[in-house]
């Protein structure tokens, strides 16, 4: 690959940029315990999906309960902490210095993003585009969100790299025809390594040349 060719890095948010999955595990584990006691791994089953899809698939036909869970989730997210994973901010800024385009692609909605932006106003510098659940009609593992990010950046899919942690997100990146980096933050390395092009524990020590090496494969 010509090193002068423009590239794009598309980042999932929870479990990739922000170390928040443990907090969500607590919330959805409680919903599973209350409403789906037959599914002890409920909090893992819904990883990477939009809230709308979770409510549709697992609380179908009970509008009152869907509304209740949605309200509880909104309140929960308003009180969340949003810590970065080690090294991620530096890595993104390094990519930008080398001309790599960046976008955030998340299953979270605009209301959740408002809370995140209050904690991290620098997101407006780190990401040229933000794709939320409110911009798409099909949740991951459908590739719609990543294809939309590429279009908004005016980049071809073969120069885009997806950074994901969940199985559904990894599949979405694959189905979009993009390179995929898997973060072993939500699932063990051995569970994702055969599904991605590169596995990271976090972004500590991650350098631009390694990213370029991946994109040149």
UniProtKB/TrEMBL annotation:
Protein name as it appears in the record: HAD superfamily hydrolase (TIGR01509 family)
InterPro entries for the chain: HAD-like_sf, HAD-SF_hydro_IA, HAD_2, HAD_sf, PGP-like_dom2
Top-level division of the source organism's lineage: Bacteria
NCBIfam families (alphabetical): HAD-SF-IA-v3 (TIGR01509)
Keyword match Hydrolase: yes
Pfam family, one: HAD_2
Organism of provenance: Butyricimonas paravirosa
Gene Ontology terms for molecular function: hydrolase activity
UniProt keyword list: Hydrolase
């Amino acid at each position: 690959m010509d090193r002068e060719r423009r590239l794009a890095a598309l980042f999932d948010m929870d479990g990739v940029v922000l170390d928040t999955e443990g907090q969500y595990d607590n919330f959805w584990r409680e919903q599973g315990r209350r409403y789906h006691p037959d599914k002890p791994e409920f909090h893992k089953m819904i990883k990477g999906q939009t809230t709308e899809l979770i409510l549709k698939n697992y609380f179908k036909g009970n509008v009152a309960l869907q509304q209740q869970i949605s309200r509880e989730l909104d309140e929960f997210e308003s009180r969340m902490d949003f810590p970065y994973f080690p090294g991620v901010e530096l890595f993104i800024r390094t990519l930008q210095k080398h001309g790599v385009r960046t976008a955030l692609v998340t299953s979270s909605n605009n209301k959740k993003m408002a809370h995140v932006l209050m904690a991290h106003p620098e997101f407006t510098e780190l990401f040229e585009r933000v794709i939320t659940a409110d911009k798409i009609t099909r949740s991951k593992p459908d590739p719609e969100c990543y294809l939309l990010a590429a279009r908004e950046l005016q980049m071809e899919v073969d120069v885009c790299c997806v950074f994901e942690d969940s199985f559904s997100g990894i599949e979405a990146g694959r189905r979009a025809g993009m390179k995929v980096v898997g973060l072993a933050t939500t699932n063990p390395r051995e569970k994702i390594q055969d599904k991605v092009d590169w596995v990271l524990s976090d972004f500590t020590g991650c350098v631009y040349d390694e990213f370029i090496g991946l994109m040149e494969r």
